[in-house]
Amino acid sequence: MLSQVVARLVRKIKKSDYNVETGIPPGALVVVCLRRFCWLVRGFIELLLLQGRIGVVFMAPGVSLRHAKMVRFGRGVTLEKGVIIDGLSTEGVEIGDNSTIGPYSIIKASLLSYLGKGLHLGNQSSLDAFSFVGAGGGVWIGNRVIMGQHVSFHAENHNFESLDHPIREQGRTAEGIVIDDDCWVGSNVTFLDGVHVGTGCVIAAGAVVTKDIPPYSIAAGIPARVIKKRQQSSDDQSQPKADGQLEDSFTE
What we know:
By secondary structure, the protein is an alpha/beta fold. The protein is built from two helices and 26 strands.
């Protein structure tokens, strides 16, 4: 079947397990494959021109890489339409193997007046459409992290104590943001500077995370608070399992 052929080809390119839904019509599958092939060719050319190297990156039209020498891609990365990545920072921007940046998302860490730290996005992680990563204080996102649309990271804060000077002239603080492995972040979630989200957390859509979230927690609200802990199943003691009654409360 065509789906099996495509799956084998993708596994070879990405060097990881991959399956194609058998119910996809052959015509639609051909269209998707042609589009992805064009993205692969564009990524090959862009990396060769901007970084002087050969890489396996799927790059849609309208992608903008600024200070490209400071951006590092793993194998099989996908950058969808309109993505902007500005690598200018002390540690650069690193996107891990088989990770995806959704359409019209922006990653940046610095201004001419302020050199920020940068971003690490782990393997098999995804940031969906219209998201923003302000990585001035550093943003570290682990492996297999799923994020919805309009997610934003603000890894710095403006000082505002003095009434005698404009806020923009009072400097800033930057502690950084950490999201550990295997988290699910719903759409429209905002992370503020200094927070650490532990392994295996679920953050509900629309939450504003202002404080640390312990591992395997389900958090929601403004400001986000832990509303439940994920439960460990009796037949699998290695991984906690989320309460099924809560699944419909969250969106990817």
